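Design request, tokens follow.
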């Protein structure tokens, strides 16, 4: 096996970068080289930002979002509707909904989805806290914004069953044809979901 052209420090950086989602060994090498070449504008600020995140960011004890404050800025923001909870699988899903600016209530992050294949059980997720929150008299609706996958829908059904004895309205995101979508380019599952979720015109 040929010796590595880079020293152990660079190899360690490449190995760590390669563990990030979306970065394989080649992408990690390119990223490492870019960081080293531009150490003043990239590497040093990145190191500072990573240290800040490591020291200050924590999960919100109320909703599960990550922030430097607990409760997080969304849970404490004035003007948000405290009577509606939108349930998502991961923090990235919460961020996606916030980018769309389509929801002005509160959130609840489960930390994943139920998965028999991966051994993820209800007690591994933030479901008990959700049921506790949804049982509050001020909550009127729980929106299940779960991924349209088998695991996402299994999780949604599990939550629905456990909220059956509460007085909250339970809804889910619509699935179907995206805005600007052409039928010929959609997969069969999306078309079937759109047909099943049809509504009056």
């Amino acid at each position: 096996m040929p010796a590595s052209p880079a020293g152990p420090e660079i190899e360690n950086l490449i190995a760590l970068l390669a563990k990030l989602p979306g970065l394989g060994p080649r992408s990690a090498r390119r990223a490492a080289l870019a960081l080293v070449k531009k150490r003043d504008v990239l590497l040093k600020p990145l190191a500072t930002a990573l240290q800040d995140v490591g020291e200050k960011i924590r999960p919100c004890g109320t909703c599960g979002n990550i922030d430097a404050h607990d409760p997080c800025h969304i849970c404490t923001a004035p003007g948000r509707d405290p009577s509606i909870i939108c349930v998502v699988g991961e923090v990235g899903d919460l961020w996606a909904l916030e980018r769309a600016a389509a929801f002005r209530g509160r959130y609840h992050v489960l930390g994943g989805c139920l998965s028999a294949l991966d051994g993820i059980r209800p007690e591994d997720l933030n479901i008990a806290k959700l049921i506790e929150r949804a049982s509050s008299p001020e909550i009127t609706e729980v929106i299940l914004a779960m991924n349209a996958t088998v695991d996402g829908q299994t999780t949604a059904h599990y939550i629905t069953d456990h909220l059956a004895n509460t007085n909250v309205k339970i809804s889910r995101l619509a699935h179907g044809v995206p805005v600007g979508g052409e039928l010929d380019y959609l997969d069969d599952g999306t078309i079937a979901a759109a047909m099943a979720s049809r509504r009056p015109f």
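Comment from the thread starter after seeing the answer: thanks! DSSP finds eight helices and six strands in the chain.
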